[in-house]
Amino acid sequence: MSSVQAPTRHKVVVIGSGFGGLFGTKALRRAPVEVTMLAKTTHHLFQPLLYRVATGILSEGEIAPPTREVLSGRDNARAAR
Questions:
Q1: pLDDT number for residue 73
Q2: Predicted TM-score (pTM) of this structure
Q3: Structural domains in the chain (count)
Q4: Residue 20 CB contacts under 8 Å (≥ 6 apart), including other chains
Q5: Is 11 helix (H, G, I), strand (E, B) or coil?
Q6: Which domain, by its residues, includes 19?
């Protein structure tokens, strides 16, 4: 009796939820891999708009979406902390 294992997908770990991490994860969207993003924070901060938060034009939530929300449309990606 022979046992045939299903091929396992490679695992990719992306360090950080900055622009590099998000673009790298996006580039692997259709690749046959499992992507895990590790980051210190649970959000992606868009720093060029910090001055608008400081002046009260925008709220923090508008420039710092949760990483899980950003990755929600990706079947092969998840955020871990």
A1: 83
A2: 0.73
A3: 1
A4: none
A5: strand
A6: 10-80
